[in-house]
Every structure is written in C-alpha cells, then in structure tokens.
Design goal:
This protein is of the alpha/beta class and about 475 residues long. It is about 30% helix and about 25% strand. It is built from 14 helices and 18 strands. Strands 1, 2, 3, 4, 5, 16, 17 and 18 form an 8-stranded mixed β-sheet that branches. An 8-stranded parallel β-sheet has the order 6-9-10-11-12-13-14-15. A two-stranded antiparallel sheet has the order 7-8. A hairpin with a 2-residue loop joins strand 17 and strand 18. Helix 4 packs parallel to helix 5 and helix 5 packs across helix 8. The longest helix is centred in the middle third of the chain and has 18 residues. The radius of gyration is 21 Å and the shape is globular.
C-alpha cells in the first residue's frame, strides 16, 4: 500500500561503514531500498510522503544501551519516566534504548523483569529492550539467567560497587560469568572496588569532608582500574566475554587495552560526561557540584584525552549515557552536608548524539566513527544489528535527518528531559536533529514532536554479535 511508503531524498547517508549520497525508500516500517540520488531507479519510486534531506545527514537512529528510567536509588527515583525519557531520547536522535531491570535481593530475576515491563509497556515513544541487573546470585538465579537469554534478555549487569545494595562478591561474579559463558549472555560490569571506597567515604566524612567534590576524591581512579583488572581476570577464568560500563579513568582504559591486546573478548563503554565534563564541575560552589555526582565519578580533565584515544583505537567501542536523572531541587539536595547521600546519576539521553557530533567537528572522531560508537556498535554488542544501528535493506526504518550546520545552545530551558538542570548548560553545539523516524513513523517532524506514548515496542535481543 502506498500509504506506508516514505522516500527520503537528497541527503548524505552516513553509516558505520559508508558515506554516500543516496535516496532511501521505506516500506512498512523498514528500509526497502537505497539508490544513488538522481538515478533512474531512485526516480522511479513513488510514495505518499517524501522528505527532502538536501544538505543534511541521513543517519541511523541512535542506540543508547545504558539508561535508567524510573530507577529507585538512595530513597528516591530517577526523574524521567519511560514516557518522558523516551520522548527526550527521540528529540536527541536516539530511537532505541536498552534500560536496566533490577533484581532486588531476595527476589527473582523474573519479578524484576516483570516490574520493568509494567513500567515501560504502552509508555515509550521509541523501541526499548532490557538488560537485567543481577544482585542476588544463587542457584535459582543462575537457572533463570538461561531462561532470560532464551527470551531476548541477553545481558546481565553486576556491581563491584554499592555494598548492601547491588554488590556482588568475586565468587558470585565468577558463578554468573561461568553461566554466561555457557548460555551466550554478556556480563556487564560496574567496576569499582566498593568495599574499599566505603572505607574512604567513612574516613572523609569523619574529617568533615562533606562537599560534592569529595565524591570524586574517594572513588579513586586506582580503585576503578583495580576492579576492571579483577573483572577481566575473573572473566578469563570463566571463559566469558566482559563488557565494562561507564569507563571514566585512563588507568581503567589501560587495563582494557592490555586485555584486548591479549585477544580477550573484553569491551568497554564510556559516556559523554567523562568526555566533556571533569572534577572541575564537581567542585562548583554552593552545592552546584552535586549536579555532577555519578558513579564512576567525573575525573580530572587529563583523563579525557585518553578516553578519546580509546575510542579511536577501539579499546572503547560504545558511548552510552548512563542516563539517570535526579532533580537538583529535592533530590540532589538529599546529600547536603553528606556527599554520600547525593543520588548518583546525570541526565544525558537527549544530548549524546549532538555531543558526539560536536566531537566530529572538534576533530576527535570521524563521522563514520560517530555512527559506529553511537548506533552500530551498541546494536551489535547487544544483539540488535542490523535491525537497529544501520541503514540497509531490511533494517528497521529508524532514521534521523540531521542538520550538521545548525548551532544550538544546550539548556534546561529547552531540553525535554524531566529534570531541572542540564549537565551541559550553556554549551554551544554544532549540529541538531531535525526529523526522526522510528520504524518509518515520524516521531520528530522538523523540530516538532509528532510521536506518541505506546509507539515504542519491546525489542527482544539475540546474543552479543561481536562474539559470533
């Protein structure tokens, strides 16, 4: 039926592997064909809707493989719901998120997963999948991991941090890694030595060091590196692949690089906050620094160059946001007088694609690498490629028309995330999302929201495609 056909004409199509001036035919929510602009094949297409992308980039929708909508943390909840968070993601050119369902201690994986399905179903503007946070490893949990992999939840997050909440000890981590080595799942690790960090927190507070900047000082880069090294060795013993989340320290990048040089299936993710922000932000006066409290913490500025280098050399493969927003008023303020009570997390799901385009403008990465780390690699890593993460016949028509020349100023006044501040307030960025399609449906139309809650569907995933 012609009513479900769309043509995008005249744009520069950029994927992880190619840049070409091509027209795109979309049919029934999928990419049906690409043809060089101006050719007879492209000219022969007809459709009800034609989008003019002349002078623009045509890129795959972003895949943000690390978000926390409605996450309970520190006595409060992340301020974005699945409805507000996925709408904001669409505004930022992201068309798929993978969020984290949480197993609470004493409960089953299934109970946690069901709870997250209930939060998301019917509320999302874009497609979504789930990872599973495993906080209580025992024989029943391990059996459940096999079942979850079979139904498309193919990655499991463990924490070496947060004793008493999400923490797993080395024995629990090893057991889960052994299980994932057998069932094809991928262990995602929050690599920080939480036991040692808790000692440093206690000592800092006893000295009266209560301001937000001490959050960064106690969560030492060496303790991120140590935990990264330990996670790599445990994975090696288990014969399992490993994905280290939110890498922030150059010493941790060095551990990943060493493991990869040895040929181990070890992967790393970093986030825009570590590439663009630093401990200078944590030290902002009048408790403003609390806006930048996240874990792993922001590092001194000299770490940024090593993170960019890791992205260029493929020692880091993915940039996700770890989007976990808490309002300054009433939420971040819970930690006034005690930095350890500041809810950990930053808003960013709307900013990632633009910040990484700015990195292209600044010469840190190429255009294709931008698409690779923001779209293709996360889709491959988490079993969604080539349905997601690229523009090719058969792929979902998750497509962004991107204006590479528009200049914008990032601000809480104009963003769509449900949070009262921007981590990048006042930053000038070159490049802006103009139009977004999710499975061929217009979600953002020339800078206007035309999507709706419930369009986004749950996306089961296959196992990590880097290992196949």
């Amino acid at each position: 039926m012609s009513s479900s056909r769309t043509i995008i004409r005249g744009g520069l199509v950029i994927t992880a592997s190619d840049e070409l001036h091509a027209d795109i035919l979309i049919e029934d929510g999928r990419v049906a064909a690409l043809a060089a602009a101006g050719t007879s094949a492209a000219e022969a297409w007809t459709a009800e809707r034609t989008i003019d992308a002349t002078g623009k980039y045509v890129i795959p929708g972003g895949v943000d493989a690390h978000t926390h909508m409605e996450l309970p943390f520190g006595g409060t909840f992340a301020s974005d719901t699945f409805e507000t968070g996925t709408r904001a993601a669409a505004w930022g050119g992201t068309t798929t998120i993978v969020d984290f369902a949480v197993q609470s201690v004493g409960h089953t994986l299934r109970e946690g997963l069901d709870a997250w399905h209930a939060k998301a179903e019917g509320n999302c503007a874009i497609d979504y999948g789930f990872h599973m946070i495993v906080s209580d490893v025992h024989q029943e949990t391990l059996k459940e991991m096999d079942l979850l992999v079979q139904e498309g939840v193919t990655s499991f997050k463990q924490f070496m941090a947060y004793p008493g909440v999400f923490y797993s000890d080395d024995g629990q981590i090893l057991r889960a890694m052994q299980r994932s080595a057998d069932n094809g799942g991928l262990i995602m690790m929050h690599a920080e030595n939480g036991i040692a960090i808790d000692v440093l927190v206690e000592q800092a507070l006893a000295r009266g060091e209560t301001d937000p900047r001490y959050h960064g000082e106690v969560r030492k880069a060496l303790l991120e590196a140590e935990a990264t090294h330990r996670a790599i060795k445990l994975a090696q013993v288990a014969g399992a692949p490993l994905y280290v989340v939110h890498v922030s320290a150059m010493e941790a990048v060095a551990e990943l690089a060493r493991a990869r040089d040895e040929g181990l299936p070890v992967f790393g993710e970093t986030c825009p906050q570590y590439l663009f922000l630093s401990t200078d932000n944590l030290a902002e006066p009048d408790f403003e620094g609390s806006k930048y409290v996240c874990s792993t913490p922001l590092r001194p500025r000299e770490h940024q160059a090593k993170l960019w280098q890791g992205l260029r050399t493929d020692d880091l493969q993915v940039v996700s946001t770890d989007h976990c927003p808490f309002c300054f008023v009433g939420q971040k303020e819970l930690g006034r007088g005690d930095f350890s009570k500041i809810p950990n997390g930053l808003p960013g799901v709307e900013n990632r694609m633009d910040l990484l385009h700015q990195a292209v403008v600044d010469g840190h990465i190429s255009r294709r690498r931008w698409i690779e780390i923001a779209c293709a690699n996360p889709a491959r890593m988490f079993g969604m490629y080539p349905k997601k993460g690229t523009i090719a016949p058969g792929a979902d028509a998750d497509i962004v028309i991107y204006d590479p020349n528009a200049v914008q100023v990032v601000s809480a006044d104009t963003h769509h995330m449900n949070v009262d501040y921007s981590a990048y307030e006042g930053k000038h960025v070159t490049g802006r999302v103009e139009t977004v399609l999710s499975r061929g449906e217009l979600v953002i139309t020339e800078r206007e929201y035309t999507g709706h809650a419930g369009h986004g569907t749950y996306t089961p995933r296959s196992t990590c495609q880097y290992l196949n």
